[in-house]
Design goal:
CATH architecture: Roll
Order of helices and strands: EHEEEEHEEEHH
Structural class: alpha+beta
Radius of gyration: 16 Å
Number of domains: 1
Helix content: 25-40%
Number of helices: 4
Distance between the termini: 43 Å
Shape: globular
CATH superfamily: 2,3-Dihydroxybiphenyl 1,2-Dioxygenase, domain 1
């Protein structure tokens, strides 16, 4: 069972607005305020190529535990196969799989205690990723944006 790609980098912060301002103004990320149409807590997010970058307030949610400051998300071909792989390695889910609009998601913890999200993307999200122009996913394109600015 191989993991497809890094799909998300999520930071929890005691002051998400200040952190978003830092990533927007200092690092140059196009983070915008969001609540996913009322389906999520207020947070900041942007898309970095194929990686979803988000800043959330510190809190307990249905997939995480307070104190987990950085979370990584990986897209996998089959969540069911990954669950079997985790079980064979003695790794239990910290949160059981749940269905979201973008697919099925669960979490585990790595040996250092970092939360890892594992997502089997819904067919419509796979299609959206496949339809994205290659130029949107390239570092070269990001460099040309700096040349124009």
């Amino acid at each position: 069972m191989r993991t497809g790609f890094l799909s998300a980098a999520i930071i929890e912060s005691p002051d998400p607005e200040a952190l978003a301002k830092f990533y927007r103004d200092v690092v140059g990320l196009a983070v915008e305020e969001s609540n996913d149409g009322g389906r999520s807590v207020q947070h900041y997010e942007c898309q970095l190529g194929e990686v979803h970058f988000a800043i959330y307030p510190l809190s307990d949610d249905e997939l995480g535990n307070a104190g987990s400051r950085i979370r990584l998300g990986f897209a996998v071909a089959s969540l069911d196969q990954l669950i079997e792989s985790c079980a064979s390695c003695g790794v239990a889910p910290t949160k059981e799989p749940v269905q979201r609009g973008f697919g099925r998601i669960m979490s585990i913890r790595d040996p250092d205690g970092n939360e890892i999200y594992l997502t089997e993307l819904a067919d419509e999200w796979v299609k959206l990723l496949q339809e994205r122009p290659e130029i949107e996913r390239s570092v070269a394109f990001a460099k040309t944006l700096n040349d124009v600015a």
